[in-house]
Amino acid sequence: MRVAIIAITANGAKLGATLKSGLPLTSLFVLEKHATGEAVPFAERVPTLMARLWPDFDGFVCIMATGIVVRSIAPLLKGKDEDPAVVAIDDAGRFAVSLLSGHLGGANALSASCAELTGATPVITTATDANELPSFDMLAKENGWRIDDLSRVKVLNALLLEGKRIAVLDPTGKVADYCGGKGNLLFCRDADDALAASADGMVVVTSGAVPQGLDPSRTLVLRPVELCLGIGCNRGTSADEIEAVVERHLSLLSLSMKSVRCMASAEAKADEEGLLACAGRKGLPLLFFSSDELNKVAVPSPPSEHAFAAIGARGVAEPAALLASDGGSLILKKVKDGNVTIAIAIARCAHY
């Protein structure tokens, strides 16, 4: 986490220096008349400084009155899945207030770290933490899962706080591990059990289709990021065609795009503009493997004479998907679709 520490007083500058020495990846910005040492001096108003720094940092520690912070960040806010963590610390270092993005942004944890370094009292106001209950957004964050509809987190966390029964359909077992027996949770074996539970809400962990018959307004879907796409394509294939093939075959298997971890291909495709553009659009890492690496992987489909003649690899899509999955298994053998060949593997850590 890249953190900007901002101080506007002499005491604040000293606190900021303490925090900078104890927190990794931090930059200290101090009003120029108080700036010394490694501090970056600034002369502009705090709202102007915050607007300038906002896109470049994952967290902010503001050593100043909470009111100044609130007025400074208000025009910059977008949503709880996008906003950085913001912690406000008073000039005397008595309190470290988790002000914004306590869960997904990490402000609660940042507040605790600041408190430990300065001797301040961490102030955490998120309801689940205040009541010593788990929260479903933190569950997702800690497991690296994606959330289908962020608005459902508020609904399910509220049900948890109210002690309402929540049915959980989770083949990973990680929800039970995280919740540790807290909350009125009913862990179900399958969709039929979940539907028969007459629960007030539902949590579903899946990379696939959500069971029919659930009330979407009270269902939180969490997506493990576990699918690795192996892609081969003819030279000059457009990003639009690659994207269409990816979406089509995920849809045919009822798999969610949110569960895709990465795309993978042959090293010979490292300059393939359409492939690079498709991965960029989707915000996915794109991994490349040498022909030697690809040839060492056992795959179910017969070797491709075309691929071997072109790049010296007996196949691309299947071995690339398997290599990217770190020893996982194929859930879609290679399929040729127009100028694109696709295979899908599920990562090893996803074998429950």
UniProtKB/TrEMBL annotation:
<dbReference type="Pfam" id="PF11761">
    <property type="entry name" value="CbiG_mid"/>
</dbReference>
<dbReference type="GO" id="GO:0009236">
    <property type="term" value="P:cobalamin biosynthetic process"/>
</dbReference>
<feature type="domain" description="Cobalamin synthesis G N-terminal">
    <location>
        <begin position="49"/>
        <end position="129"/>
    </location>
</feature>
<dbReference type="GO" id="GO:0016787">
    <property type="term" value="F:hydrolase activity"/>
</dbReference>
<dbReference type="InterPro" id="IPR036518">
    <property type="entry name" value="CobE/GbiG_C_sf"/>
</dbReference>
<dbReference type="InterPro" id="IPR002750">
    <property type="entry name" value="CobE/GbiG_C"/>
</dbReference>
<dbReference type="InterPro" id="IPR052553">
    <property type="entry name" value="CbiG_hydrolase"/>
</dbReference>
<dbReference type="Pfam" id="PF01890">
    <property type="entry name" value="CbiG_C"/>
</dbReference>
<feature type="domain" description="CobE/GbiG C-terminal">
    <location>
        <begin position="227"/>
        <end position="345"/>
    </location>
</feature>
<feature type="domain" description="Cobalamin biosynthesis central region">
    <location>
        <begin position="134"/>
        <end position="224"/>
    </location>
</feature>
<dbReference type="InterPro" id="IPR021745">
    <property type="entry name" value="CbiG_mid"/>
</dbReference>
<dbReference type="InterPro" id="IPR021744">
    <property type="entry name" value="CbiG_N"/>
</dbReference>
<protein>
    <submittedName>
        <fullName>Cobalt-precorrin 5A hydrolase</fullName>
    </submittedName>
</protein>
<dbReference type="Pfam" id="PF11760">
    <property type="entry name" value="CbiG_N"/>
</dbReference>
<keyword id="KW-0378">Hydrolase</keyword>
<dbReference type="InterPro" id="IPR038029">
    <property type="entry name" value="GbiG_N_sf"/>
</dbReference>
